[in-house]
């Protein structure tokens, strides 16, 4: 991605040619992958030619972006992954889209999301095996980047919707600290949790994109990352980690050791497991409010799986919700103390390889606690599992110190590639 | 408002008759007040008849609501107070609208907002004197409730956009604790500050409406409010308080004393004034992101005042923003200690009466610090100023303890009416 922007800036590549290459890949592979909710090649090429015409050579010059379908676009339909909003056309671009265009990017199309970024899967398949889920809710974004259709895509995470599908698809999925990227123009699921992030092929691309869009140049990672201090954190749900994930973590630890970084294990404190129930309660209570119109007016057009899980959330009480909200700040402080002088925690990104079947996008068990804490997390590809599908590891950092996390993640990535 | 709902529930009033009464008032007065951005009498009556037909007698049965024009509605246009979005029709109702309809209310129309709830005024006049501003950004909502056109209207506050116009119009304006009411479907100005609230004619109506919509029954205020502990807090900007506001506070203190409540003054700590710069920085940095499409694509169609103030915000630095965000939690803790065992602080709602002229909606100096702290605040009418226009006082409470604030505000209101 950075190489594309650099070439377009240097005049050795046009935005049109870069976009055409993406479209060629889509044409060859979309029947199998089904990553796109909407894609009009002529519209994308017209935008690319407009970039070339105006010479707008910003930091994302010529970069084709896949925009998750829960993100508003003025020139393309936005259906929020739902039949209930099929063909809907918002009046604006969400800020992340508007700022990307200003930076020189081209919106290639809208990528498949689960319905409202909740649980009902879309049509996307795992590019490595069409019988397996790509993960979700950012299904199309992860599949499209994994398959070489676009170098950058937007994802959002409320439970595990960036990091988990990135791990399943063998790409980088970066969920910044809560609040880093503006969320206006993005369908709300849970205001306390929803986080906009990016999917890319390497850590430095993810850092570059968010540095540009959040106006935080310090997030960019230098070419040579310094050896980080990293702790291994198995979480309180380690029994859910399959062989693929355990082996991926072992590979990461070994690769770091080979470059002189000793990973020490950090014990899992008793309070950590409280975060799971908290995340479930906060998400459930808030989505019942945020999706009020859908629940009350559009119910007949929603997926059965959406309705079934909404019905379950009716049982959440106000007392439970208030207790969960009140518990957050103290647990954030405890986490800050736990991570201590480490740059990042190394932890599972997903239970294992992408599960077989398309009826579920997999389990967010290794993501939900981090989303609740609002801390940044990033999935880094770590080879293939026993089934031949990709598996990632996750690095987690301190709230608001994404630069430190990204540098550590880049070092892990470099080590695994060495 | 509660009496309307009770009568409709009891079958002694129809939603249609209640709505028709509101429409009659609009017909008589809209030429002078100009509170409405959109109002279709037939559409409102049709919704009312539908309520009567289905016998949906919820806790807001037959209550006609004015919906601030930055809040999405599926059956009415939503222009966000801007010529750039004239005639735009969203695909959904914002949750606050959907939940109101479910509770039996009727959406009378869309009320005038400043452009994007920022600074460029709309067409609304103060119902007490058409040469004076109604305040903003919730201009039409406050004017419509003040003029008897609706018993309930939605407002939003990012700086002082509920409490200030409520004070100028002689109505109750309640900004709940940040996060109390869901904000999905509401145009984002500043995600860290934007708060949805309500405008009503008395405190118990405001408490009832938010209790219903936030699913927090404990917010409802009993008919007999107990004597509260209240401190007088002049803020660090007391020199901005005009005679009208000083006298209103004096009246409130005297009314409380007459009912046996001694108001003691709370000294203003040095840190309090830091909140003003923080609010300005957080709002300015965030709105430049949230309104990216408007700023980058729609600039030619925006009000000059919007563009001019946006241009000023370009100067805010990331370092300033991060420092402001980091300063919030410690100041929230200090405020919690400051309020101590008091139920509420009594403090100005606005500098004075509504200023003459329609070119500005007035100064949010007595609101911005509270919005930054995310604490609940409520304007309570406190008579007329020397110029014959209304002036309110503000009660401010602890974050998340809105029930205590509302009970205290109801006691103040009762005392002033005694």
Question: Could you walk me through the main structural features you see in this protein, from its secondary elements to its overall organization?
Answer:
Chains A, B: InterPro entries: Amidase, Amidase_dom, AS_sf. Chains A, B: It comes from Labrys wisconsinensis. 2 copies of one chain form a homodimer. In chain A, β10 and β11 form a beta hairpin. The mean pLDDT of chain A is 97. Helix content of chain A is 40%, strand content 13%. The longest helix of chain A has 22 residues, at 318-339. Chain A has 418 residues and is an alpha/beta fold. Chain A has an 11-stranded mixed sheet, sandwiched between helices. The first copy, chain A, has a single domain (1-418), classed as Amidase signature (AS) enzymes (Alpha-Beta Complex), CATH 3.90.1300. Chains A and B meet through α4, α9, α10 and α12 of A and α4, α9, α10 and α12 of B.
Shape of chain A: globular
Name the largest protein-protein interface in this structure: A-B, 40 and 40 residues
The assigned CATH architecture of chain A is Alpha-Beta Complex
End-to-end C-alpha gap of chain A:
21 Å
Radius of gyration of chain A: 20 Å
CATH class of chain A: Alpha Beta
How would you describe the oligomerization state of the chains in this entry?
homodimer
Helix content of chain A: 40-55%
Order of helices and strands of chain A: HHEHEHEHEHEEHEHEHHHHEHEEH
Query: Helix/strand-derived class of chain A?
Result: alpha/beta
Number of domains of chain A: 1
> Mean pLDDT of chain A, as a whole number?
97
Strand content of chain A: 5-15%
- Strand tally of chain A: 11
- CATH domain fold name of chain A: Amidase signature (AS) enzymes
Q: Enumerate the strands of the largest sheet of chain A in spatial order, edge to edge or round the barrel.
A: 1-3-2-4-6-5-10-11-9-7-8
Low-confidence stretches of chain A: none
**How would you sum up the major sheet of chain A?**
11 strands, mixed
Total of helices of chain A: 14
């Amino acid at each position: 991605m950075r190489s594309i922007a650099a070439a377009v800036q240097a005049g050795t590549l046009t935005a049109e040619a870069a976009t055409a290459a993406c479209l060629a890949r889509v044409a060859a592979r979309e029947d199998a992958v089904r990553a796109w909710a909407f894609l009009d090649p002529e519209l994308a090429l017209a935008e690319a030619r407009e970039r070339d015409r105006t010479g707008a050579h910003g930091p994302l010059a010529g970069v084709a972006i896949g925009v998750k379908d829960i993100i508003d676009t003025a020139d393309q339909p936005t259906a929020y992954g739902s039949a209930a909003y099929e063909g809907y056309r918002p009046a604006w671009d969400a800020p992340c889209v508007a700022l990307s265009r200003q930076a020189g990017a081209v919106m290639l199309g809208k990528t498949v999301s689960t319905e409202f970024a909740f649980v009902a899967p879309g049509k996307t398949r795992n590019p490595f095996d069409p019988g397996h889920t790509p993960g979700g809710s950012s299904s199309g974004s992860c599949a499209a980047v994994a398959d070489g259709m676009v170098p950058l895509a937007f994802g959002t995470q409320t439970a595990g919707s960036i990091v988990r599908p990135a791990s399943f698809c063998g790409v980088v999925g970066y969920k910044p600290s809560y609040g880093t990227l503006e969320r206006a123009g993005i369908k709300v699921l849970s205001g306390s949790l929803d986080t906009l992030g990016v999917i890319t092929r390497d850590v430095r691309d993810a850092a570059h994109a968010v540095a540009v869009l959040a106006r935080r140049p310090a997030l960019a990672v230098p070419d040579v990352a310094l050896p980080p201090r990293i702790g291994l954190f198995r979480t309180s749900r380690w029994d859910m980690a399959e062989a693929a994930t355990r082996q991926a973590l072992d590979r990461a630890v070994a690769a770091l050791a080979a470059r002189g970084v000793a990973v020490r294990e950090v014990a899992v404190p008793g309070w950590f497991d409280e975060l799971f129930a908290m995340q479930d309660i906060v998400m459930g209570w808030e989505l019942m409010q945020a999706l009020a119109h859908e629940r009350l007016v559009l119910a007949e057009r929603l997926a059965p799986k959406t309705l079934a899980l909404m019905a379950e959330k009716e049982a959440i009480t106000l007392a439970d919700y208030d207790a969960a909200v009140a518990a957050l700040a103290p647990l954030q402080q405890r986490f800050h103390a736990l991570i201590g002088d480490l740059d990042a925690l190394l932890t599972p990104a997903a239970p294992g390889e992408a599960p077989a079947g398309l009826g579920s996008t997999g389990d967010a068990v290794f993501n939900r606690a981090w989303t609740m804490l609002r801390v940044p997390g990033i999935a880094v590809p770590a080879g293939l599992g026993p089934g031949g599908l990709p598996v990632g590891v996750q690095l987690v950092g301190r709230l608001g110190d994404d630069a430190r996390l990204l540098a550590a993640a880049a070092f892990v990535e470099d080590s695994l590639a060495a």
